[in-house]
Amino acid sequence: MGRYIAPSLLAADFANLRQAIEMVNQSDADLLHLDIMDGQYVPNLSFGIPIVKTAKKISTKPLDVHLMIVQPERYFSQFRDAGANHLTIHIEACNHLHRAIEEIHELGMKAGVALNPHTPVSFLEEIIPFVDQVLIMSVNPGFGGQKFIETSYDKIRKMRSLIEQEHSSSLIEVDGGVDLQNAGKLFEAGVNILVAGTTIFHDPDPKAIIRAMKKA
After folding, report:
1. How far is 36 from 153, CA to CA, in rounded Å?
2. So which residues are the catalytic ones?
3. I want to staple 89 with a disulfide (CB 3.0 to 4.6 A). Which of 72, 73, 162, 204 is the partner?
4. Averaged pLDDT for residues 13-23
5. Model confidence pTM above 0.70
6. How large is the C-alpha radius of gyration of the chain?
């Protein structure tokens, strides 16, 4: 089972955005993660399509775009045009999830579904065969630097069990409070992709942190 690292651009120094993305380019990271927040679905604003376009011009890694917005289907084509390779939407924010996943695929992107901490794995039983990745939120979405919710390990194991039961090829991604201390345990629980922001971008040697997390 592959081990992938997706540095979260939200934690980067936006005064030196090119430098931050070029660091990711030169590192062992596999994806560049971008969190889009609208101030409605989550109580915070981050950035939108112009930053995704800018990141695409600089990044040599696929863009893993996480939409924390209401009615995300309004913007699928815009994010595709901006350069998103993976597009993840929240099950809690989408009334017609199967249709939305089909639209993302038709636009040529990989489709992901995110689950908030309170949302059970069982909600994905009917949809998991159509999903490329499941994003388990291990903090409440909206802010960086939060403490990892320890019950997330059990949730990840349940998700891995469901994926195997349904013979799905979906990957498991986890975001929130991920660091060197829990990276190995998360991989052991069944995670494929670790999203980390503060741990990577606030370290004096972010490329070394990425290498260490991948080998944890």
Report:
1. 25
2. 35, 175
3. 72
4. 96
5. yes
6. 16
Is residue 107 within 8 Å of 79, Cβ to Cβ?
A: no
Q: How far apart are CA 109 and CA 84, in angstroms?
A: 7
**In a 10 Å sphere around its CB, with 0-12 CB exposed, 13-18 middle and 19+ buried, how is residue 209 labelled?**
buried
Strand order in the sheet with 193-196: 4-7, 193-196, 171-175, 133-137, 110-115, 86-90, 63-68, 32-37
Separation CA 27–CA 157 (nearest Å): 29
Burial tier of 165 (Cβ tally within 10 Å: 0-12, 13-18, 19+): exposed
* pLDDT tens readout for residues 38-77: 999 888 889 999 999 999 999 999 999 999 999 999 999 9
d(CA 208, CA 194): 15
Residues 101 and 76: beta-carbon distance below 8 Å: no
Q: Above pLDDT 90, what percent of the chain?
A: 90
* AA identity, residue 51: I
Q: Which residue has the tokens 């995300």?
A: 72
DSSP state for residue 38 in the 8-state scheme: B
Question: What is 4-214's CATH number?
Answer: 3.20.20.70
DSSP summary character for residue 62: P
Residue-wise pLDDT tens digits, 153-163 = 999 999 999 99
